[in-house]
Amino acid sequence: MSDADTPYRAPRPGRSDPGDSRAWADDSKAWADTKDAHRLIAEALSRLVAADPTIPPHPYLSRHLAQHAARGEVLDDAHVPLAVLPWESSANVRTLLRQSGAVSAARRQEWLEAWARIEPFIGGAGPDSRLTSLHLAQHAATRPRTPLDTSAARVSGSRITPLWSDWTAQDNVLAVSETRLESLTRTTTADSRSLLVSGDSHGTIRMWEPHGVPAMAPLHTYGGAVQHLLPLPGDLLLSAGTDGSVRVWHLTRGQLLAEPVHRPGTWVSALTLFAAKDAPEVVLVAHSDGALGALDPVTFLPVDTPLPALDPAPALLSGVGLGGAEGMVLAVAQGRRVRVWDPRRGDGYTHEHEHEGAVRALVDLPAPGRYALCDDSGYIGFRDASTGRETAVATAPPAGPAITLTALTVAGRAAVASGGSDHTLRVWDARTGAAIGGALEGHTAPPVALTTLPGTSRELPVLAAQELLVSAGADHTLRRWKPGGPGVGAGRAVRRPVTAAALSGPGSTAGAPLIAVADESGTALWDTGTGRSAALPAGHATVTAFASALVRGEPLLVTAHSDAGVQLWSLDRGAHAAPARLAGLLGHSLPVRSMAAFPHEGRTLLVTGGADGTVRLWDLDRACVLACREDHLLSVRDVAVLDTAQGPLIVSAGTDGTVRLWDPATLRPAGAPLHCEQRVVNAVAAVPVDEPGRAVLVASGGEDGTIRLWDPGTGRPVGRRLDIGDGPVAALAFFRTATGRPCLAATGPGGTIHLWDIDTGSHLLRIVTGSPLGTLDALDARQRGGPHPEHPVLLAAGVAGACVFDVRVEGR
Question: CB 3.0-4.6 Å disulfide test: which of 47, 246, 347, 630 passes with 261?
Answer without folding.
Answer: 246
